[in-house]
Design goal:
By secondary structure, the chain is mainly α. The chain has 13 helices and no strands. The chain has a single domain, classed as 2-methylcitrate dehydratase PrpD (Orthogonal Bundle), CATH 1.10.4100. The longest helix has 24 residues. The chain starts with a helix and ends with a helix.
Length: 290
């Protein structure tokens, strides 16, 4: 398994092969399995992503936090500031996040709490670029490799490093995937990862009542816009002054400095506001039948 973004991109350049092919072969070798098995596993993930969006658009689940219900569907309103496509992509991410909060089947990419970002970005990029499912499929391997490298080198856990390790990493994975889908080069992939992570560095994890609902659902939408922005900047030639691997190191250092209250415990941030505490008390009363 690749130990760094630089190593991954360098190896693809050395072999003079498409990035996704290098990743697929490496995964098969690392897992000691057939290449066909690697492809089949990823196709199942793609199918689950598609179904999670479809189910999200078709249903409106009942959530323990009543105030957080019906948010995604409201994003179907005509856009005011965002273009139609970006607003729709943000809605898609929220629909998948709501589907997850309603105990629906999703792909943790890289976590359940950030599961709406990657599929929403990939599916919207496919539309905008006029690509095929196979292009999305190839981009998923690039995104997955980025997530695996960050997870092995740093963390994907909000309880370890805050939401920068969840929605932040999902943004970076998505940005890398769509830069690759758009035909970007290795340098642009590296820059997209670095920009997306830098833009969201220090983001805390503060779920109300400890549930992956609020602010998590809305942060998935924010992650979509961050991914598209990072990709757009990289493809435009904007470079990160700090390479992706160093940004990943910085993310982990920042995460370790966050106090426990800001790392998914539900004791800080908006979870510790009067409204956040009141919602938690209401949930406890409902659970106790009082």
């Amino acid at each position: 398994m690749f130990e760094s973004i630089a190593q991954l991109l360098s190896e693809a350049g050395r072999q003079k092969r498409p990035l996704h092919e290098v990743i697929i072969d490496d995964e098969a070798e690392y897992m000691g399995t057939r290449k066909d098995d690697v492809l089949a596993r990823m196709r199942r993930s793609l199918d689950v992503m598609k179904r999670s969006l479809q189910k999200g658009l078709e249903t409106d689940p009942v959530l323990p936090i009543k105030e957080a219900m019906h948010m995604a569907v409201k994003m179907a309103a005509p856009p005011v500031f965002l273009g139609r496509d970006m607003k729709e992509a943000a809605r898609w991410a929220m629909e998948i996040a709501e589907h997850n909060s309603g105990m629906g089947l999703i792909v943790a990419a890289p976590t359940a709490g950030s599961s709406g970002v990657l599929p929403a970005v990939l599916f919207k990029a496919k539309e905008l670029l006029g690509k095929e499912d196979e292009d999305v499929f190839h981009s998923m391997f690039v995104a997955a490799a980025v997530g695996a490298i960050i997870g092995n080198h740093a963390t994907l856990s909000g309880s370890e490093a805050g939401c920068q390790a969840e929605v932040g990493v999902a943004s970076a994975m998505a940005a890398a995937g769509i830069v690759y889908m758009a035909g970007g080069n290795s340098s642009q992939v590296d820059n997209a990862i670095a920009i997306a992570l830098t833009n969201i560095m220090g983001l805390i994890c503060d779920p109300i009542a400890g549930l992956v609902i609020s602010p998590c659902i809305k942060r998935n939408a924010m992650g979509v816009l961050n991914a598209f922005l990072g990709a757009e900047m990289a493809l435009s030639g904007v470079a990160s002054l700090v390479p992706a691997d160093e940004v990943i190191d910085a993310i982990m250092k920042v995460g370790k400095k966050l106090p426990p209250e800001l790392r998914e415990t539900g004791f800080g941030g908006i979870a510790d506001t009067p409204t956040g505490r009141r919602i938690k008390q209401d949930i406890v009363k409902d659970a106790c039948g009082k």
